[in-house]
């Protein structure tokens, strides 16, 4: 819980700063000020996204290493920097699997809507969607934790 709050507060701070920069640019009557504040806001947002990606494995590092929040964040940054392409590839693969499963569930729900009417349809599709969502969440978490656990020992 604490790790999530630290990361969330960091994201909120960046969003606030970027929002203020864009607001200054929007109310300024000067085109140059608008361009400068917009550029600074975009650069700041991109840097924040980079650090969010580096902190991506923090929860798994926290659990696997049974470490403090700051140590987990530092280890995540170090690990992701060393394995940038592998982590990116695994993350992309897991996202694509999740999207594919969502598409399959959507098609199945569409077909079921032709066969089942009324409240029964809502119950059946809710159960299917909930089960698939839970499964995907567990598989993604397990895959990322296993990836970190195995590769952290090797490095």
Give an overview in words.
By secondary structure, this protein is mainly α. Helices cover 90% and strands 0% of the residues. The protein has 6 helices and no strands. α3 crosses α4, α3 packs across α6 and α5 packs antiparallel against α6. The protein is flat. The protein starts with a helix and ends with a helix.
Shape verdict: flat
Tell me what portion of residues adopts beta-strand conformation. Answer: under 5%
Number of helices: 6
What is the mean predicted local confidence, pLDDT? Answer: 87
Low-confidence parts:
none
How is the topology of this model organized?
Elements: H1 2-27, H2 31-54, H3 58-65, H4 69-82, H5 84-115, H6 119-154
Summarize the structure.
By secondary structure, the protein is an all-alpha fold. It has 6 helices and no strands.
């Amino acid at each position: 819980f604490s790790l999530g709050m630290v990361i969330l507060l960091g994201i909120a701070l960046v969003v606030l700063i970027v929002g203020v920069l864009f607001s200054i640019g929007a109310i300024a009557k000067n085109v140059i000020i608008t361009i400068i504040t917009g550029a600074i806001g975009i650069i700041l947002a991109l840097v924040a996204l980079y650090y969010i990606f580096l902190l991506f494995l923090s929860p798994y590092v926290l659990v696997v290493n049974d470490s403090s929040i700051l140590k987990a964040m530092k280890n995540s940054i170090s690990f992701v920097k060393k394995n940038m392409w592998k982590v990116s590839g695994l993350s992309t693969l897991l996202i694509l699997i999740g999207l594919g499963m969502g598409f399959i569930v959507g098609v199945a729900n569409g077909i079921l809507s032709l066969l089942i009417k009324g409240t029964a349809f809502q119950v059946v599709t809710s159960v299917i969607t909930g089960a698939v969502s839970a499964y995907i969440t567990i598989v993604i978490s397990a895959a990322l934790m296993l990836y970190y656990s195995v590769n952290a020992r090797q490095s």
